[in-house]
Amino acid sequence: MKPIKVDLGSRSYSVLVDRGLLKKAGTLISPVCTSKKVLLLSTKPIYRLYGKNVVSSLQAKGFETHPFLVADGEAHKNEATLFKVLSEMTRLSFQRDSCLVALGGGVIGDLGGFAASIYMRGIQFVQCPTTFLAQVDAGIGGKTAIDFKGIKNLVGSFYQPKIVLADTSALRTLSDRQLRTGLAEVIKYGVIEDSELFDLLEQKLDKVLQKDPELLTHLARRSCEIKARIVSADEKESGQRAWLNFGHTLGHALEAYFKYDVLTHGEAISYGMWFAALLSERSGLCDRTVVDRIKDLLDRAGLFKPIPRFDERKVYEKMTLDKKAKGGQIQFVLTRKIGLVTIQKSVPQSVIFSTLRQLRA
User: Is 237 one of the catalytic residues?
Assistant: First the structure.
């Protein structure tokens, strides 16, 4: 288990990817957390599966551990839940050197990280992602946020954890749909940087969907390596970190348009990746073969869940609220070939609308 380093100088940390890590949580966390007072933030379903092991491991290392369970789902990633977490830490008299451990998927990681970042202007924070989506993407890189006024991740901060424990044995309990939604992000890594990873997914997709443990661990590790490299080079998204948003401009807009109850994140960004590939072709950046390979892999992975027809103008309005938009213009991450992307700052509105209509049909 070789640690993957996110290199940020004095704020550098390790990402560990392996099976069985949650049972060793106390041993792995104790060297990086100076306090012995911990809030274990989770949800009832996740705590039922893994909470007792994590608590036992922390207590064995002398941690005073306080589980705090919140409602699951994107609909609860809001200011109301955030203030419940802050109130609980206040009630427990948490201090500046206390620690919040987020045990769960991307919602718990985003919420817990943001709470940790603003309580007493920042306390220690540990990510223990339990979903494929969180392990390969949301749990790494320090983006923390809540949704606000119907806009995903509108209020948040960059706040890095002390360590990330990605226990891939947790993936065996995921539903097929949960696994697929994380797989969408792995496909994204193939498109933006690693053509060999994309080739592997094309060749061994059936084994991935059957939850082959060694293959899932390999995919999680490779995804973390790519994200760690990008974040180390561009922590606050002034340059290449924006590549990680391939498919997300439309994806986030579709999630918000359907009020987060029709598409999972992975399903939404899959439509976004197909959309971005079509824009890339229409902008003369890539040929049709690239578009077809991306679309076919996403389709084979079961990520194109049928969606109701949508109002493309309202979806476009939501895209203009994307955090990458500048000067009133939407910036898209587009692809030149599998493994290489670029930022496009001026896609004609007519091309955007015609492509949206193609998806809507």
Answer: yes
